[in-house]
Design brief:
2 domains, four-stranded mixed beta sheet, five-stranded antiparallel beta sheet, 22% strand, Beta-Lactamase, alpha+beta
């Protein structure tokens, strides 16, 4: 691996902003995920003290990130002309001041998370040096180091410890509690589900799947497509996409691991949910390393992901019982 990097457990962090974050906060620990959550909690505590002194209400849930930004001296502006993102952008405006410009046409839950995400960028050393833009397509992608950490920080801002943690402990992990907590905190189903898993002490996991190719398949298809362009009038039909894991989040005591881009068999109930759009609750068997591992599971489609010609994206809770 070229350049400077830090190894935490089995994972390497190489982005210069993440490496600098670890170096500046080594007194907390070496794990940037734990560092960002700790910094977000401290930022919230400071904001609550400022709010109390100013007579500003910071009650919830739901917790309005615009109020948090105001308390922290960050201006929030609606904008229909974002340059680098369709959701929100963070800009320095001189004298150490910052402004968040956000898209008012997006759903409220998405606006909330995007604004909170931009606030989380201020947890990184040297954040004033450049603009930051939220790219929704990379949300909660562990391979996108900075954006992933900002998503974790955003989750802490709008689903704060210990209030959210107490709700999860009281309600448990299930589709029913997911939907109730999503309404209560005015957060998306996807963001709420990940926050639940990072809080829960149960043996469970969540994953999101979509119809896609593996990266190496994409490269091969692009090469074949370019080669076939040499034959005039030749009609090229790409192979069908498979329902694949986009990301997987387990609790610490969940023993199974399901890798990214793992494909799901057509006979699996998860696949049926993607096609029929009907929720599922019951046994789920997944072929991992040529062995069918059995779970109890719940699955729903993610809102707004059904496209003509493809199945919907699916969110799944898996339980080891």
């Amino acid at each position: 691996m070229k350049g400077k990097y830090v190894k935490v457990g089995k994972k390497y962090y190489s982005h210069k902003s993440v490496v600098r974050l670890i170096e500046c906060h080594s007194d907390i620990c070496q794990n940037p995920e734990k560092i960002i959550r700790k910094l977000a909690q401290e930022k919230l505590a400071d904001a609550k003290d400022i709010a109390e002194a100013m007579g500003i209400s910071w009650d919830g849930p739901p917790f309005n990130p615009k109020i948090l930004a105001s308390i922290l001296g960050i201006l929030c502006e609606k904008s229909d002309e974002l340059t680098h993102s369709e959701d929100a952008e963070l800009y320095p405006v001189g004298n150490g001041n910052m402004v968040i410009r956000y898209n008012p046409k997006k759903p409220k839950a998405r606006q909330n998370f995007s604004i909170a995400h931009e606030i989380a960028h201020t947890l990184f050393p040297g954040y004033q040096d450049q603009y930051k833009a939220r790219h929704w397509s990379g949300k909660f992608d562990p391979e996108n180091e900075v954006e992933f950490l900002c998503d974790l920080g955003a989750s802490e801002f709008i689903m704060p410890t210990p209030i959210f943690d107490m709700d999860v402990k009281r309600m448990g992990v299930s589709l029913k509690s997911l939907q109730e907590l999503s309404r209560r905190y005015e957060t998306s189903i996807e963001a709420t589900s990940i926050r639940m898993i990072t809080t829960s002490i149960e043996s469970c996991a969540m994953m999101v799947l979509s119809h896609s190719y593996k990266p190496e398949e994409l490269d091969k298809l692009e090469r074949e497509k370019n080669q076939l362009k040499l034959f005039n009038g030749f009609h090229w039909e790409p192979p069908s996409k498979k329902l694949r894991v986009q990301y997987f989040f387990p609790t610490e005591n969940f023993s199974a691991y399901i890798p990214k881009y793992k494909s799901i068999e057509d006979s699996c109930p998860i696949y049926k949910v993607s096609e029929t759009r009907h929720p599922y609750q019951g046994p789920i068997s997944i072929n991992i390393s040529n062995q069918h591992i059995k779970f109890y599971g719940e699955a729903i489609i993610l809102p707004g992901t059904h496209k003509r010609g493809f199945g919907s994206n699916v969110l799944v809770f898996l339980y080891q019982r």
